[in-house]
Design brief:
92 residues; alpha+beta; two-stranded antiparallel sheet; 48% helix; binds zinc ion
């Protein structure tokens, strides 16, 4: 698949990258969405990280900073990783 076109898995129509809806079957096209399972796993990882940071330093503030800092960094990283991920959602 080239970077400039996206192919619909339902009707196999090639559309320019950036279209929001397939022109043939009207499937919705979504870009850069991270899978729910990945989001949940990262959520658990961030909570554990914050918990351990808090218990090591015995400082609640540190754990809060680690929690929000990790979420901020992960959100940015996930957006980069899944920027090229394209989802087609078919409507009835
Ligand atoms: Zn289509």
């Amino acid at each position: 698949m080239s970077n400039h076109t996206v192919q619909c898995p339902f009707c196999f129509k090639e559309s320019p990258h950036g279209v929001k809806i397939c022109t043939v079957c009207h499937a919705k096209v979504v870009y850069g969405e991270c899978p729910v399972t990945v989001a949940i796993l990262f959520g658990i990882a961030v909570m554990l990280l914050a918990y351990f940071a808090g218990s090591w330093t015995e400082n609640f503030i540190v754990s809060v900073i680690v929690f929000f800092g990790s979420i901020f960094i992960l959100k940015y990283q996930l957006k980069k990783v899944y920027a090229d991920r394209i989802l087609f959602i078919q409507r009835d």
